[in-house]
Design goal:
Blueprint (H helix, E strand, L loop, with lengths): L6 H17 L3 H11 L5 H14 L16 H5 L16 E3 L4 E8 L4 E5 L2 E4 H5 L2 H7 L3 E6 L7 E3 L4 E9 L8 H4 L5 H4 L2 E8 L6 E6 L6 E4 L6 E2 L7 E8 L4 E5 L4 E6 L4 E2 L8 E2 L4 E4 L1
Antiparallel strand pairs: 1-17, 2-5, 2-16, 3-4, 5-14, 6-13, 7-8, 7-12, 8-9, 9-14, 10-11, 10-13, 15-17
């Protein structure tokens, strides 16, 4: 190593390259292209795409997948798994993680301020754009769940309950990896996202999920909506629905890895599972009632 050239310098250069490759590009057009390309059902293209992906994503684990072969790259992205591989904690005093994830920023919301990364705050106002939800979660709790591209992309009910409306907010497709979170202010508030407020059964507490889309395949599919929420979606912004579910039931999936921010009322407590940079599986303890 050259004199004066430290490990920190090397890591910073690697971060710079990662940031340039994933963000200083025409994100919308690359995302639309990837959405098209990933759906090509042509065996040689699928084989090459998956081979290249596996080379760069050493943590890709397809052993849990129900399928053992895939028609396209997209088919692999949205793969289902054997649900027995994700035991759901059915304790009535536990709210579980809605997805497999790496835990990012979390904690108590200071009035209406929270963090995407250390030194990078944002507000409930900027993210939720809903006066009722802003007041409900003022001084409440939040936890950021980041789904890597290699992870199981489906998300599930953290507790039994119902949903009567999904709010869709169109936006950008910034990468939501840790490098971008340390460089782009209010990143989650800039990106395409949906707000799913869950009415919980038989408990006096509140949970709201905010799935945030990202670069490449910015697209969210809810099982109970007829349309996919993506860059081509034209509205309406508020989508009425009437769906009830049990804890662990599937609610939808991302077309690619992304993030879910979970908001909880201040009468809930974090589980001991909640630690920054820790992996968590769908169905494991997230909040204690």
């Amino acid at each position: 190593m050259k004199k004066g050239y430290s490990i920190v310098d090397k890591l910073t250069q690697q971060e710079d390259i990662n940031f340039l490759l994933t963000n200083r590009i025409p994100r919308r057009y690359v995302t639309l292209f990837m959405g098209w390309f990933s759906r090509i059902e042509f065996t040689p293209i699928t084989f090459i795409s998956l081979t290249v992906w596996k080379l760069f994503a050493r943590d890709l684990n397809l052993e849990e997948a129900k399928k053992k072969s895939f028609k396209s790259l997209h088919d692999c992205f949205i793969r289902e798994i054997d649900i027995n591989a994700r035991p759901i904690n059915q304790d009535g005093n536990i709210i579980v993680s809605p997805c497999d994830a790496i835990i990012g920023a979390y904690g108590k919301i200071n009035d209406a301020k929270l963090f995407q990364a250390k030194g990078f705050p944002y507000t409930l106002d900027d993210l939720l754009c809903d006066a009722e939800l802003i007041e409900r979660y003022r001084n409440g709790h939040y936890v950021t769940l980041r789904l890597k591209s290699t992870m199981y992309h489906h998300f599930h009910a953290p507790y039994s309950g119902s949903v009567s409306e999904i709010t869709y907010i169109s936006g950008d497709t910034w990468n939501v990896n840790p490098i971008a979170l340390k460089r782009i202010e209010k990143l989650y508030c800039k990106n395409e996202r949906a707000i799913m407020d869950i009415s919980l059964d038989n408990i006096n507490a509140s949970i709201t999920l905010v799935p945030v889309a990202a670069i490449l395949v910015a697209s969210m599919r809810f099982k109970f909506l007829s349309e996919t929420l993506d860059l081509k979606y034209k509205g309406p912004n508020k989508i009425s629905c009437d769906v009830s579910f049990d804890k662990g039931d599937e609610l939808g999936y991302f077309q690619h890895g992304s993030t879910i921010i979970v908001f909880a009322s201040n009468n809930l407590e974090f589980s001991s599972n909640v630690k920054e940079n820790k992996s968590i599986n769908m169905g494991e303890d997230l909040f204690i009632i």
